[in-house]
Specification:
alpha+beta, 2 domains
């Protein structure tokens, strides 16, 4: 009896050992390298039990939970969004996580996705454009391969994982890798299949599995902007099978969280700064578009991308005007200081004080779209100002334009430079300021523009812009000022709004990436110097056409009509 019992135990031990040995043989995995450069292709080979589907989970070792964030606004938003999405402040997930599999249907499915267009026209789920995305299953219990997901083991983790990969705020705050159509983030790469699917998110991925033998080989392109020295664990069919490290691949922007050559940023800032200093508008918007499309500023994990991008934009809207001031104010003397300073005071008040309350308690998303409507109205108004009927009503601008054209003609005949008119104060007052420009008299109410400046300051703080796109049309339409006078005033106002907004960000603990900001400062200042010289090469009419085109550009951007901007 005793012998039989011992024999049974021995057989049981041997059986368990054989099963474990067989499992270890099937789970044997090799990773093509221990270290890769960001963007390199990672290849994983091995063998699983014959007849099984393949599930390779690649997870960043360092996980993130909402309580880890150091951002003031994120500390308020993440718990609220987590509660709504179904995860707690202490739920943690790997920010970068990929499931490479032959059975994508276990985790979700391909769905159509509509996007673009104003929210007051299109309801949720509607839009101007069509694309596709991989939508994860709503409930963790519905996932068909829960045991294969490595470090993601609970319903709360699944909820956070789903939210972080499908919600724009989650992508921009945690994951930092998004599949885009133009400038618009559709979703973040999560479940990946072989490139033969034709899906844009599967591009560069190869998954080969021989179910008869269990032999497999899978490769995928690592994220080009993976932070230097990021460690990943590899799980094959639920078993941890190895690890690798991603090393840096280029110049790393620590807070921008992207690889980018600073020289490219300087060149971009020069171009934007030149344009900005010529028309006094859209510097922040254009720099924002440049950052989003080329630099792809993302911010560290736990900090929303906007809270790094916006302070960086301010570097341009502050230093580009400074680059142009010497020529505008000292050489050509065409700065109407009383108007500029009253505008600036209002903007500073709006951006530092009132703007802080507005952005804290009101969602600016919907207002931004209505701002787009206002912008297009200003664009139409700007075009209407160039009609003969409108020019005849504004005889001072018409006369000034004729004098400018005569100066241009003379410069061409003599081969010299165009001589610009200068500001000649006639009367100073809180509500009545008059000056002559090229011999023509203009009148403006500084106090009115102080109040208008407050409104612009609030918009500046809310959207991380200088506000010139509102300032210049206000001065050319409401005050009937020529572009040659409106632009220098706008740049003064933009400086004040930029200082105010920057103070607001610093108070809340948000600083730009120093290399990114430094590159923008250098390029923006140089662009300001170029723009102030180039402006007199264009007539009043041409400058207004450029301004109108810029306003229409912003209209398309604000209302998400064109997804490349």
């Amino acid at each position: 009896m005793m012998k039989n019992k011992r024999l049974s135990i021995s057989l049981m031990v041997i059986s368990i050992w054989l099963l474990a040995w067989q499992g270890s043989c099937f789970a044997e995995t090799t990773i093509s390298a221990a270290k890769y450069k960001a963007g390199d292709t990672v290849t994983i080979k091995g063998q699983i039990e014959p007849g099984q589907e393949l599930y390779i989970a690649i997870a960043q070792q360092k996980q993130f939970k909402s309580s880890d964030t150091g951002g003031k606004f994120e500390k308020k938003k993440l718990p609220k969004k987590g509660k709504k999405a179904g995860f707690s402040n202490d739920t943690s997930i790997p920010p970068l996580y990929y499931m490479i599999t032959t059975n994508r249907e276990a985790f979700g499915k391909d769905v159509d996705k509509k996007f673009g267009g104003p929210s007051f026209v299109f309801k949720k789920g509607q839009g101007l454009y069509n694309t596709t995305m991989f939508k994860l299953k709503k409930k963790y219990d519905d996932v068909g391969a829960k045991d294969m997901m490595g470090p993601i083991k609970t319903a709360e983790q699944w909820n956070m994982f789903k939210w972080g990969h499908e919600n724009k705020y989650g992508i921009n705050t945690i994951v930092k890798e998004g599949n885009k159509k133009g400038k618009v983030v559709i979703f973040a790469r999560s479940v990946i299949g072989d490139s033969s699917t034709g899906n844009y998110w599967d591009k560069g991925t190869s998954v080969k599995l021989d179910k008869a033998t269990g032999q497999f080989e899978a490769s995928f392109a690592s994220f080009r902007h993976t932070a230097p020295d990021t460690d990943f664990d590899v799980y094959v069919n639920g078993v941890k099978s190895g690890s690798y490290k991603i090393e840096g691949n280029g110049f790393w922007l620590a807070k921008g969280y992207r690889y980018m050559n600073p020289i490219i940023i300087v060149i971009g800032a020069i171009l934007v700064g030149t344009y900005f200093s010529m028309i006094g508008a859209a510097g922040g918007m254009l720099m924002g578009a440049f950052q989003a499309l080329f630099v792809q500023t993302a911010g560290p994990v736990g900090i929303n991308a906007a809270n790094v991008l916006r302070p960086s934009n301010i570097a341009l809207t502050l230093f580009s005007p400074l680059g142009s001031f010497y020529r505008f104010a000292v050489v050509e003397k065409r700065v109407a200081w009383p108007v500029g300073l009253s505008f600036g005071a209002g903007i500073f008040l709006g951006s530092v004080w009132l703007g802080g309350y507005v952005t804290q308690y009101l969602s600016m998303k919907a207002y931004k779209e209505w701002l787009g409507v206002l912008v297009v109205i200003m664009g139409v108004k700007t075009i209407m100002e160039m009609t003969p009927a409108a020019m005849n009503k504004r005889k001072n601008i018409k006369a000034m334009t004729q004098k400018f054209n005569a100066a241009v003609k003379k410069a061409k005949e003599t081969g010299g430079a165009v001589e610009m008119g200068s500001i000649e104060p006639v009367k100073s007052g809180l509500t009545d300021y008059r000056f002559k420009f090229w011999g023509e008299e203009f009148r403006i109410n500084p106090l009115l523009f102080c109040f208008l400046g407050i409104i612009v300051g609030v918009a500046s703080r809310a959207f991380g812009i200088g506000g010139g796109f509102l300032l210049v049309p206000m001065m050319t339409t409401i005050a009937a000022l020529p572009m040659y006078v409106a632009v220098p005033i706008s740049l003064i106002g933009t400086c004040f709004s930029s200082i105010g907004s920057f103070i607001g960000y610093v108070i809340n603990g948000y600083l730009p990436d120093m290399v990114l900001a430094g590159s923008i400062i250098i390029g923006g200042f140089a662009g300001g110097m170029l723009g102030s010289r180039c402006q007199k090469m264009f007539s009043e009419k041409t400058l207004k056409i450029i301004l109108a085109c810029t306003l229409f550009f912003l209209f398309f951007r604000f209302l998400k009509i064109e997804y490349w901007i």
